[in-house]
Amino acid sequence: MGDRLLVPYDGSEPATDALEYALETFPDADVVALYVVPVPDGYWGAFQDSDERTPDLDQAHDIGRNIITEAAQLAADHDRDIETEIATGKPDHEIVELAETEPYETIVIGSHGREGISRILLGSVAENVVRRSPIPVVVVR
């Protein structure tokens, strides 16, 4: 199989499970782990008038690099090499945008499996990706 898989990775247990699933289930696929530095809607607008209150995006990217390095190490533990990427924005939007613009065959994403009011209040990146993705999505729970 020559597939190219996109695996969103944030260091959480569901993301780790998804990466391990991708590595084990698709042994011949090229795997790309993606960390999205989350930026909520309207976030940057709060800082437009003040140069003194700009957020430390560099620090957020440093954290992201540490997390994505964990993904590469996990792959190495499975005797695999993976590519890694970091994006900035709303995670579900960035994941879908990459699926629309890059040559991926499948997204493999972890899900916390929240239900009921918790899911309504917190939203679900995995659910939004499943609904909006132009390519197949495997949800690992």
Write up what this structure looks like:
The protein is of the alpha/beta class. It has a single domain (about 5-140), classed as 3-Layer(aba) Sandwich (Rossmann fold), CATH 3.40.50. It has five helices and five strands, in the order E-H-E-H-E-H-E-H-H-E. It has helices spanning about 15-25, 55-75, 90-100, 115-120, 125-130, and strands spanning about 5-10, 30-40, 85-90, 105-110, 135-140. Strands 3-2-1-4-5 form a five-stranded parallel β-sheet, with helices on both faces. Strand 2, helix 2 (about 55-75) and strand 3 (about 85-90) form a beta-alpha-beta unit. The longest helix has 21 residues, at about 55-75. It starts with a strand and ends with a strand. The mean pLDDT is about 85.
Q: What is the tally of helical segments?
A: 5
> What is the fold-level CATH name, i.e. the topology?
Rossmann fold
H-E order: EHEHEHEHHE
Record field, number of beta strands = 5
Output the CATH homologous superfamily. Answer: HUPs
Structural class: alpha/beta
How many domains? The number is 1
Spatial order of strands in the largest sheet: 3-2-1-4-5
The biggest beta sheet reads: 5 strands, parallel
The CATH architecture comes to: 3-Layer(aba) Sandwich
| Amino- and carboxy-terminal Cα gap | 24 Å
Organism: Natrinema altunense
Protein name: Universal stress protein
Family: Belongs to the universal stress protein A family.
InterPro entries: Rossmann-like_a/b/a_fold (IPR014729), Universal_stress_UspA (IPR006015), UspA (IPR006016)
